[in-house]
Design brief:
Layout (H helix, E strand, L loop, with lengths): L4 H25 L6 H26 L7 H19 L4 H21 L5 H20 L4 E2 L10 H21 L1 H11 L1 H6 L4 H27 L1 E2 L7 H12 L11 H20 L4 H41 L1
Antiparallel strand pairs: 1-2
Length: 323
């Protein structure tokens, strides 16, 4: 059966957006865009966003929001860093991931069992966790052992990120965790009557989001050589921008696909890098990113609306031919 034009357009839209951005900055920056150093810079920008989105996509697929990832990143990095000072270098990663899992599970429990809207509970945690980090560090940077710089090597970072993303891709696309998350986003009531444990999978989604925040916290601490109370500022907004630009619906549902977070993260990374090498000011960079996000979301909504109208128009014809 020939695929519908609007369905194909919706799938190709993120790739076309990426292609336009790459071609544009290739033209205006010349050879600087494709140097080895610049490509590694793009990958370095992309990895944290992609890992954060790999956890948050479970939350977004359910139609929920996690606004606490940036502050949780800072708390995870802080707890991991302090654990490495007290227990040794080996304690950095497990302490950070465990902190992320606990806070993520708490967020999910507040949503699932106490019916607190996700935007409310995670916004409250964004403020509270940042205050806890400032209290623990007394507002000062804490320097750690130089051994942590091992995790900041590009080869190590890329290898860990690739393995983790492969695992998260499998979980989202081929296990109940991802399938039921999309079902909840499509229609939570129907999912509940179908036998899906909605509460359990909401908690699981936020737990995975927290664990990914913990991993990004480890990379952040290792990149700056210590703990800073301001690390992770606005990180959750970067992740959400990457997801929405990549085509993840704001309302979640079946159109949430893992490849879209990779495309969206790469798109934002190329955009930020291209603006930097083009010597665009930080203020204009933020403005341009905001305008691009608004444009992409509006176009995505328009394409989805066209697809829905096409399906509704085709439905009566299908019934008539069947009769």
């Amino acid at each position: 059966m020939k695929k519908d034009f609007w369905s194909i357009a919706q799938r190709l839209f993120p790739f076309l957006g990426l292609l336009v951005i790459v071609v544009f900055f290739t033209i205006i920056s010349g050879d600087r865009m494709w140097t080895q150093r610049n490509i590694l810079n793009i990958v370095n920008i992309m990895i944290p966003m992609c890992l954060g989105a790999a956890g948050m996509v479970f939350v977004s697929a359910q139609g929920s929001t996690d606004m606490s990832q940036g502050s949780l990143l800072a708390l995870c990095g802080t707890m991991g860093g302090l654990a490495s000072l007290s227990l040794g270098f080996w304690a950095l990663v497990p302490a950070a991931l465990l902190t992320g899992a606990i806070v993520g599970a708490f967020n999910g429990t507040m949503l699932a069992h106490f019916k607190v809207p996700s935007i409310t509970v995670t916004l409250a945690m964004l403020i509270a966790l940042r205050a806890i980090v400032s209290f623990i560090t007394t507002g000062q940077a804490v320097f750690l052992s130089p051994r942590i710089l091992f995790f900041n090597r590009m080869g190590v970072k890329i290898t860990i990120a690739a393995v983790v993303l492969a695992i998260m891709w499998y979980l989202f696309e081929y296990t109940k965790a991802g399938f039921f998350s999309r079902c909840i986003g499509e229609n939570q009531v129907v999912g509940q009557f179908s036998g899906i444990s909605v509460k359990l999978f909401k908690i699981l989604a936020f737990t995975l989001s927290g664990i990914m925040a913990g991993l990004v916290g480890v990379f952040t601490v290792c990149s700056i050589g210590g703990v800073s109370p301001t690390m992770g500022n606005f990180f959750e907004l970067q992740v959400m921008t990457a997801m929405f630009v990549g085509g993840i619906p704001v309302t979640g549902g079946a159109n949430a696909r893992f490849y879209k977070i990779v495309v969206g993260s790469l798109m934002i990374a190329v955009l930020r890098n291209g603006l930097a090498i083009s010597k665009v000011s930080a203020e204009m960079t933020g403005l341009i990113q905001g305008l691009i996000l608004l444009t992409v979301v509006c176009l995505d909504i328009a394409l989805r609306q066209k697809l829905i109208e096409k399906q509704m128009f085709a439905a009566p014809k299908t019934r008539e031919s069947a009769a």
